[in-house]
């Protein structure tokens, strides 16, 4: 469901190592007449950072895209502090992510604008605080925040005071327009999850209409009606860089 670049094998172009630095370059041809993608992953000596960028060549048309990092949090309520650059606005998923008839459960009130991350409404009339994670166990939910495209860059971060470390990611909000959080905390009791995935958070930097894929993202949706991007229009005569 995440597309060819997430599922197919990449071709090795080069692996350069010098003076403690390393850069891996990979490539992949997309479907016939849909261009190619070049991936670069770099490490610099003395820096606890991973630099990643993708360059799309010869692709003409619209497409959603994004990065999909997943973090395993300590299995304690609110163990991690979640912070993001001030968004324009945010939304819960248009419909519940899970269906109890299929042994999946969601907690957040669907189709709701998020005006404050510390008080997001739930279907039972309560609220949860999305500035901390894990949230209450037993649910699978998705929220998305529209980034401020006037900024040079925006950030998403998770810090763990008891463990003593911080994770962060930076991006260009003009290219990757949204930050989507996939809250996976024991809400799926069907295979292959079987209730075993707990305290996991997807911190996804995307341009897309939630997790609904190509068709829903390129067609008219309420993001576009509100003036927000849900896909990138790429010109086959120019390359598009995502980092």
Describe this structure in words.
The chain is mainly β. The protein has two domains: 1-59; 63-234, no CATH class. The chain is 6% helix and 42% strand. The protein is built from three helices and 20 strands. The chain has helices at 4-7, 213-218, 222-225, and strands at residues 11-18, 21-29, 36-43, 51-57, 61-63, 65-67, 70-72, 80-84, 89-92, 113-114, 120-121, 127-128, 132-133, 139-146, 154-160, 165-171, 178-185, 200-207, 232-234, 240-242. Strands 6, 7, 9, 10, 14, 17 and 18 form a seven-stranded antiparallel beta sheet that branches. The two termini are 21 Å apart. The relative contact order is 0.19. The model has no long low-confidence stretch (mean pLDDT 96).
Q: What is this structure, in a nutshell?
A:
By secondary structure, the protein is mainly β. It is 6% helix and 42% strand. The strands form five sheets. Strands 6, 7, 9, 10, 14, 17 and 18 form a seven-stranded antiparallel beta sheet that branches. It has a five-stranded antiparallel beta sheet with strand order 1-2-3-4-20, with no helix packed on it.
């Amino acid at each position: 469901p995440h597309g060819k670049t997430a599922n197919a094998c990449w071709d090795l172009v080069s692996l350069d190592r010098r003076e403690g630095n390393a850069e891996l370059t990979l490539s992949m041809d997309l479907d016939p007449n849909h261009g190619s993608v070049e991936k670069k992953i770099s490490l610099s000596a003395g820096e606890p950072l991973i630099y990643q960028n993708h360059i799309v060549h010869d692709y003409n048309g619209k497409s959603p895209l994004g990065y999909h990092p997943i973090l395993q949090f300590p299995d304690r309520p609110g163990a991690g502090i979640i912070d993001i650059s001030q968004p324009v606005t945010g939304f819960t998923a248009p419909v519940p992510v899970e269906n109890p008839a299929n042994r999946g459960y969601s907690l957040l009130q669907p189709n709701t604008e998020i005006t404050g991350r510390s008080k997001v409404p739930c279907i039972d009339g309560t609220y949860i605080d999305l500035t901390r994670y894990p949230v209450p166990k037993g649910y699978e939910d998705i929220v998305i925040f529209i980034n401020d495209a006037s900024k040079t860059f925006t950030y998403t971060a998770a810090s763990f005071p008891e463990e003593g470390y911080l994770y962060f990611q930076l991006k260009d909000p003009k290219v990757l327009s949204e930050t989507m959080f996939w809250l996976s905390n024991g809400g799926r009791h069907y295979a292959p999850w079987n209730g075993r995935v707990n305290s996991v958070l997807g911190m996804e930097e995307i341009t897309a209409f939630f997790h609904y894929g190509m068709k829903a993202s390129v067609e008219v949706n309420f993001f576009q009606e509100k003036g927000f991007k849900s896909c990138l229009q790429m010109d086959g005569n120019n390359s598009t860089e995502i980092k």
